[in-house]
């Protein structure tokens, strides 16, 4: 199905040195820019992926997740070298990602602020002026996250007398056993 877009929509994901938004840095960013196509035409899709030297060590925990080492990014430019051109490319676009409201958007915002404040890059990007779509939120609304749904998924049974204390307690026990 073709997305019905008024503005270009950026889908993006970040790999980082860790999970602390204020302290950690981006080591890789990939952005898919989907621009509205003419009526009857497909949307235009552009992909940009960059490795970035975070200028701080990558934590062993983060490296275990994404597989990117300090050695892999040692010769890559730091974020502030990309900041202005990236902000320009993103201008006028709405933003989408998976779990992006909690992690990716705040971290990218911190990187833009750091580029401006620490490195003097003349860059402005205001996420408050863009529509933000977190696909994870949509997924959680479409795929129920209740005890009844867990019981159906793990135990392949329907929960009878849901919201009675005993039925919910027994179902929770069976779900944990199945997990």
Using brief descriptors, characterize the structure shown.
single chain; 179 residues; alpha/beta; five-stranded mixed β-sheet; 5 strands; 41% helix
Largest sheet: 5 strands, mixed
Gross morphology: globular
Q: What structural class should be given to the helix and strand makeup? A: alpha/beta
- Indicate the percent of residues in helices: 40-55%
Mean pLDDT: 94
Number of helices: 7
Biggest sheet, spatial arrangement of strands: 3-2-1-4-5
> What low-confidence regions span 5 or more consecutive residues with pLDDT below 50?
none
Tally the beta strands: 5
Radius of gyration: 21 Å
Strand content range: 15-25%
H/E topology pattern:
EEEHHHEHEHHH
Q: How far is it from the N-terminal to the C-terminal residue, by CA?
A: 35 Å
């Amino acid at each position: 199905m073709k997305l019905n877009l008024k503005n270009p929509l950026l889908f993006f994901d970040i790999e980082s040195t860790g999970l602390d938004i204020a302290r950690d840095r981006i080591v890789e960013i990939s952005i898919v820019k989907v621009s509205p196509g003419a009526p009857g035409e497909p949307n235009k899709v552009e992909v940009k992926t960059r490795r970035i030297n975070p200028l701080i060590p990558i934590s062993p925990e983060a490296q275990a997740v994404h597989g990117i080492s300090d050695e892999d990014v040692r010769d890559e430019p730091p974020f502030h070298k990309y900041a202005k051109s990236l902000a320009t490319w993103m201008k006028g676009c709405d933003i989408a990602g998976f779990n992006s409201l909690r992690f990716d958007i705040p971290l990218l915002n911190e990187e833009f602020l750091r580029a401006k404040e620490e490195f003097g890059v003349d860059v402005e990007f205001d996420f408050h002026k863009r529509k933000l779509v977190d696909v994870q939120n949509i997924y959680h609304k479409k795929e129920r996250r209740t005890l009844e749904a867990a019981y159906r998924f793990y135990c392949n049974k329907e929960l009878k007398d849901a919201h009675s204390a005993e039925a919910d307690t027994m179902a929770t026990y069976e779900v944990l056993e199945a997990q």
